[in-house]
Amino acid sequence: MNAKEIEIKLQIDEEKYCRLIELLKEWGNLTEEKHQIDIYYSPEKESFYNAGDRCLRIRTEGIKSILSYKQIYDENTSKQFIEEFETSIENPNMMDRILRALKFRSEITIDKYRIEYLIDTRFKVALDKVKNLGCFIEIENINEIETLEKRNQALIEFAKELSLDISQRNIEGYSNMMFRKNIKNED
């Protein structure tokens, strides 16, 4: 799959997390509840998570595993999007061995529980509880007909409808956040 993701991610507290679950039950349709384990990789002599504009990961969800590469473009602009390439993998352990043979190392592991809702076929909303990081909401505009600017503006308007403070928008992925947390803990 190759797609441009247009999304907003915000860290929220436990109280807001619970309030949003109740609100989204009314506004949308529950589509999935899942537990995901993501292992993030970087080249041996570099860290993708210092710059924060790209990631390579193996995601395991039950018996299904996916290899993904993502890169952010036009960061912090109204044209911001994430280009994503992904493919299913049959054997995540063998994929890990291939990446290591290619001089990649596993750098970060993210363990999260996700609840997803679909709102009016325009937005996919995920509420995440991430081990050692906290609670988050991620809103993705899935209307691929509009321009990037219009899709980003619609995200901002919808976030305001949910009473979210978009000035706290988190453009980092969980991997970057965990990387920074791990560095702090090493000091």
Structural features:
5 helices; globular; alpha+beta; 9-stranded antiparallel β-sheet; single chain; 187 residues
SSE layout and pairing:
Blueprint: E1 2-5, E2 7-12, H1 14-27, E3 29-43, H2 48-51, E4 54-61, E5 64-73, E6 81-89, H3 92-101, E7 104-119, E8 123-130, E9 134-141, H4 148-161, H5 174-186
Antiparallel strand pairs: 1-6, 2-9, 3-4, 3-7, 4-5, 5-6, 7-8, 8-9
**Structural class assignment:** alpha+beta
Radius of gyration from CA coordinates: 17 Å
Order of adjacent strands in the largest pleated sheet: 1-6-5-4-3-7-8-9-2
What value does the average pLDDT take? 89
Number of strands: 9
Helix content: 25-40%
Count of alpha/pi helices? 5
Beta-strand fraction estimate:
35-45%
Q: Runs with pLDDT <50, length 5+?
A: none
Shape: globular
Order of helical and strand elements? EEHEHEEEHEEEHH
Sketch the major β-sheet.
9 strands, antiparallel
Task: Note the gap between the termini.
Answer: 39 Å
